[in-house]
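New to this. Please check this protein:
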Amino acid sequence: MNVFIGIPVIYSLDVRETTRLLIGILHQFKRKTLPRKKHIISRMSGLRIDKRQRQKVFLLQNLSGIGTKRALALLKSFSSIERIMSASPDDLKKVQGIGKKLADNIFSILHEPF
């Protein structure tokens, strides 16, 4: 493969090989996940947090059903990732925006073996 004016050039032997290459590229494109489009912390919230706090929020946001508001609510309630991880589902439910189903889901993600 060469690069011509910043565009990768892939050589193929014939039309059949070109077809296989294009189909392979299409499959790779379909599997690729797009980057997160929203900001980790909303600028409109007026909240100023440092880099370490931002990493904590980002870590929580990777749990299903957790966005910025819920991540911040969890951190405000428990003050650390460690305390969130050791919280029971009943403790998690006490946080505003966390219902029974979400609390159970968070707990199972954090405690079930791989």
